[in-house]
Amino acid sequence: MNDPRRRRTARATAVALAGTAALALAGTAALALPVTPAGAASPAGGARRPAASTGKPPTATTTPAKGTSTGTPGSFRLLSTTPSGSGVAGTAPLVLRFSQPLSATTPLPQLSPSVPGTWARDAGELVYRPVGSFAPGNTFTVRLPGGRGGIRSSSGATLAQPAQLQFSTRGGTQTGAEAALAALDYLPATLVPATGGHLTAATASAATPATLAGAFYGAAAPRLAAAAWAPAPLRALLGGADGGVLLRGAVISFQRVHGLAMTGILDAPTWRALAAAAGDPAANQQPGGYTYALADQQQPETLTVYDNGHVVVHTLANTGIPQSPTANGSFLVYERLASQVMQGTNPWGTHYADPVSWVAYFNGGDAVHYIGRAAYGYPQSLGCIETPYTAAETAWPYLRLGTVVTVEG
């Protein structure tokens, strides 16, 4: 039998589900916006006289609590905004109500950060309807253009000055995040609507954008039911009180697909991407589907890799010897290497430096990888899960960052 192989303990990437408290309201600018009439007369000589200067910069008036502005009676101005303030639910549209009907060609406000959706003009209102919802735990800024290129009424009057207002959404719920991730195929679950009956995420009324948006903010969320294909160890992970390894893996996988920092935390950028994706679940399914790996230490030892319920690899494997066993539990793939030289010290003190291929680290220095052995199916490693070359090469594309690896037996 060849000498056991082991890599020095690798750095691990810590991922933990953090709270998603609503961000504090940053304040709003003045909403008392006087008219600049169209075609207003200029002073003699054709030049406008500047207003007398006080030597002080313009001041901003605090926005009233309900978003109602003050201003000269009869002037064209913004009357109110909804939602406003902090801690709001992001399921309703943004409505800006003005004192006069709006021009059909009026410039539109800018929303930051951007949210998929559309503006609509309705008499004296501008309405922004997001696709899905305004994401939880975020502060949104609305900038209204003023002056000659500002928001314009049907009579040709414009807002004299630009204005800025903000509102903040409250934190999202874990159950809402889980429902959305299941609908997008980042969790091995189907959704069970309140009316009962099992419906898959791709076809369920339980996975409509409105239902998912409501679940973000505490409305009754569809319940999760383990996918029919899921083996028992994977089923046992579903619905952990603190989200656990399954939810963290789903968040990391979602962040990987959407080009976000892979922290495993439901932070503000992740909520924004999740809310946008949940606005059209069918178009935003996880590329390649849900993957999972299960190592069984009962001899003959095996490794099985699943892709959306299909077994893509089932092979004999080697796990750790008694002096350096492979720990049981569920872990997340945190580093992948096509090849490397593993170096370290054997339990009896000798040094090793072994070339290996198709490496996926999941627990400290333990990884799934290929290394040449005379036989497979019994403990030979220093904690890694070793497989033949073809099995390792086939499994590697499915062992993505965030994939759950369960070791049992």
Summarize the structure.
The protein is of the alpha+beta class and 409 residues long. Helices cover 14% and strands 28% of the residues.
Task: Give your account of this protein's structure.
The chain has 409 residues and is of the alpha+beta class. The chain is 14% helix and 28% strand. It folds into two domains: 1-20 and 172-409, L,D-transpeptidase catalytic domain-like, CATH 2.40.440; 63-169, Immunoglobulin-like (Sandwich), CATH 2.60.40.3710. It contains six helices and 21 strands. Strands 15-14-13-21-16 form a five-stranded mixed sheet, sandwiched between helices. Strand 18 (351-363) and strand 19 (366-370) form a beta hairpin. Helix 1 packs across helix 5 (268-278).
What would the CATH topology of the largest domain be?
A: L,D-transpeptidase catalytic domain-like
**Number of helices, counting only DSSP H or I runs of 4 residues or more:** 6
Give the strand line-up of the largest sheet: 15-14-13-21-16
CATH architecture designation of the largest domain: Beta Barrel
Radius of gyration: 29 Å
Q: Order of helices and strands, N to C?
A: EEEEEEEEEEHEHEHHHEEEEEEEEHE
Largest sheet: 5 strands, mixed
Could you name the CATH class of the largest domain?
A: Mainly Beta
Calculate the terminal CA-CA distance, rounded to whole Å. Answer: 23 Å
**Could you tell me the strand content as a percent range?**
25-35%
